[in-house]
Design goal:
Chain B: GO terms for molecular function: transmembrane transporter activity. Chain B: InterPro entries: ABC_transp_permease. The complex is a heterodimer of chains A (about 325) and B (about 350). Chain A is mostly helical. Chain A has one domain: ABC transporter involved in vitamin B12 uptake, BtuC. Chain A is built from 13 helices and no strands. Chain A is globular. Chain B is globular. Chain B has a domain of about 240 residues: ABC transporter involved in vitamin B12 uptake, BtuC. The two termini of chain B are about 20 Å apart. Chain B is an all-alpha fold. Classes of the chains: A mainly alpha (about 325), B mainly alpha (about 350). Chains A and B meet through helix 3, helix 4, helix 10 and helix 13 of A and helix 5, helix 6, helix 12, helix 15 and helix 16 of B.
Chain lengths: ~325, ~350
């Protein structure tokens, strides 16, 4: 049993990290009242930028390359998400449609530029991805050490740390209270002097930053190159994690860890005796089925922020 | 009011397409291509000869149906992002019946088409039921249903329809919509009878929406479920019905690929995008059957023409995806176009 956990947990953490980052982005955006179906596209953008930056500057930056790559991808993700913010906050576009367009645009641009710059549909493998490492001292603890601290990626722990920070920001700071109030009742928030548009812009841009970060972490830990099939559904799984986690940062963290586990099970199941008999298909569709069940209220009620998806028009009742 | 409304509903799609094409030209210029050469290649790729014209119509065929699927749900104020999943299960069901049943064509072909529609309808029924009975938002459920469709279909292809292969065998001749006649007049393109079916269904949907009680109730429930309930309509039933019909249309779009173009189904690494493009088609077509048909041909043209851009002008085909995304943005942001138009009009009259 312990052997099994020692092989599953590091893999689950490994698969969860990109989902956690992106899901946290989704929580910020949706808490402010802007539905973000575009998480998938934001991840695509992040993955693309992360890989391209890494390939271009690997020689100059050496061991720092993956770190700087994800920072750059975070910035580009933030900038890219402004499109979604402009469309859904200022232009009052249907937020779902705008999100769909983000997904199309990110993938289109990413593959277009890849072909333009590299002459083919996929990039080379990066020479400076993230590598797993053992955390000193902690990995020597018996049982728990190999489970949580041996052969892990630092990014996984940063992701968990980010979830705690996101929880603190959203629930313990005035900024977080304002952000949530804008998503629940924008008119009341407006009456209290909160700038609804500004808050929503900020929230969407944060979601873009975290989506870009998630995409680049996925690219530099799991995929190692960029093509049209690098990000297939991770953004939507993250969206599922937002809902499954009931729009709460720590809930999203738990859901993302759980979905990461489900993904990792389909990878390691062959080496785990009692899972080898479970067909992969059930593990593959588990996150999606569970999300539907959660929404249907079979696993506790999941209620969206009240004003989620509704453009705010000043002066209407 | 209503005449200006009608004017806008025609003007906004046209302006959006123009802005999308202009943006595409700007991108071509920025990346060092000649936009005129680029668009000329696109035109040749779509209408260069009889073969490409046939292929353009062939490619537009499933878009008509997936566009109708999304548009039909939109009319009942439901957002069916799940057209993609419905296309996939419809494709699978059609091929499944096409392979495993032996019957004369008059029975076999309608049976295969019906199977596709039923599979799609089932995929629409689940989110419809959850929406109607539990108030679960259909957008999220349909997104999740897409992935369930994708992975389940791949699994069935690998382990049920074949023995760990990635492509099924071809359907029997008696279930095929392939047409020697249509192929021969278009220089052996894969144009098939599906286009006639798609256009026929567009007419039926127009009739259903605009000329029947069912359509009236669906629209009423979409506008205001409370008022409709007060007027004695069964809101739940109408929501479910709208999703079921929408899903069936998505399934039929899958049948076009399964019984017409390919005659088989392969394991998919990602989505076919026929359903997602259907969203764009529906939006651009202002959710009317005629609009959808026109928009479907526009998208079919762009997508088919894109195939010529790499060879004809050295431009990656994905440029067209970017153009389509930009078109969707502008259609979605119609508020700002309307505002600009009103400004422009107001400025002139003063």
């Amino acid at each position: 049993m312990i052997d099994v956990l020692q092989s599953i947990i590091p893999t689950a953490l490994f698969f969860s990290a990109p989902l956690i980052f992106t899901a946290l982005g989704g929580v910020f955006s949706e808490r402010s009242g802007v539905v973000n179906i575009g998480l998938e596209g934001l991840m695509v953008m992040g993955a693309f930028v992360g890989i391209v930056f890494n390939l271009t500057f690997a020689d100059a930056l050496g061991g720092w390359t993956p770190w700087i790559s994800i920072i750059v991808a975070t910035f580009v993700g933030a900038i890219f998400s402004i499109i979604h913010a402009v469309a859904s906050v200022s232009f009052r576009a249907d937020q779902v449609v705008s999100g769909v367009a983000i997904n199309f645009l990110a993938l289109g641009l990413g593959v277009y530029l890849t072909k333009q710059w590299y002459g083919k549909g996929q990039t080379e493998m990066v020479s400076q991805p993230f590598f797993s490492n053992d955390i000193p001292f902690l990995s020597d603890i018996p049982i728990i050490g190999p489970m949580f601290f041996k052969g892990v990626y630092t990014t996984s722990y940063i992701a968990i740390l980010f979830a705690v920070i996101a929880w603190y920001i959203l629930y313990k700071t005035p900024f977080g209270l304002r952000l949530r109030s804008v998503g629940e009742h924008p008119m009341a928030a407006d009456t209290n002097g909160i700038n609804v548009y500004k808050m929503r812009y900020i929230a969407v841009i944060i979601s873009g930053a975290l989506g870009g970060l998630g995409g680049s972490v996925f690219a530099l830990t799991i995929a190692s190159n960029f093509s049209h099939s690098t990000i297939v559904g991770q953004g939507f799984i993250s969206l599922a994690a937002v809902i499954f986690g009931k729009w709460h940062p720590l809930g999203a963290l738990g859901a993302a860890l759980f979905f990461g586990l489900a993904q990792s099970l389909s990878v390691v199941s062959s080496s785990v005796p009692f899972l080898a008999s479970v067909p992969d298909i059930f593990l593959l569709i588990a996150p999606y089925v569970l999300t539907i069940l959660a929404l249907a209220g079979f696993i506790g009620r999941a209620d969206a922020p009240k004003a989620n998806g509704v453009p705010y028009i000043k002066g209407t009742r | 009011m209503s005449s200006s409304h009608r004017l806008f509903s025609v003007l906004i799609p046209i302006i959006s397409v123009l802005l999308g094409l202009i943006a595409g030209a700007v991108i071509m210029l920025l990346s060092g291509y000649n936009p005129i050469t680029g668009y000329a290649a696109l035109w040749r790729g779509a209408f260069g000869d009889a073969y490409t014209i046939g292929e353009t119509i062939r490619r537009s065929t499933p878009y008509i149906l997936s566009g109708l699927a999304v548009a039909f749900a939109f009319r009942a104020n439901l957002f069916n992002i799940g057209a993609e999943g419905q296309v996939i299960v419809g494709w699978l069901a059609a091929v499944w019946v096409g392979i495993s049943v032996e019957a004369p064509m008059v029975i076999h072909l309608p049976l295969a088409i019906l199977a596709a529609a039923l599979a799609g309808a089932l995929w629409g029924f689940i989110p419809g039921l959850l929406k109607a009975k539990l108030g679960v938002h259909e957008v999220i459920v349909t997104i999740m249903m897409n992935y369930i469709a994708l992975y389940s279909t791949n699994e069935i292809i690998r382990n049920v329809l074949t023995d760990h292969k990635t492509t099924t065998e071809s359907i029997h001749e008696s279930a095929s919509m392939a047409s020697e006649w249509l192929g021969s007049i278009t220089f052996f393109s894969r144009l098939h009878y599906g286009i006639l079916l798609a256009l026929f269904i567009a007419i039926i949907i127009w009739f259903l929406i605009d000329r029947t009680t069912i359509g009236y109730e669906l629209k009423a429930v979409g506008f205001n479920p409370h008022a409709s309930k007060y007027a004695g309509m069964n809101v739940s039933k109408n929501i479910i019905l709208a999703m079921v019909i929408s899903g069936a249309l998505g399934g039929l779009a899958g049948a076009m690929e399964g019984l017409g173009t390919y005659g088989n189904i392969s394991v998919m690494s990602g989505f076919s995008n026929i359903g997602f493009d259907g969203i764009a088609v529906a939006l651009l077509g202002a959710n009317t059957p005629l609009g959808v048909v026109i928009a479907a041909f526009l998208f079919g043209t762009l997508k088919e023409g894109a195939g010529e851009m790499p060879t004809g002008a050295g431009i990656p085909t994905e440029l067209v995806d970017v153009i389509i995304a930009i078109i969707i943005f502008f259609v979605a942001s119609s508020y700002i176009i309307r505002w600009a138009l009103l400004r422009f009009k107001g400025g002139k009259s003063k």
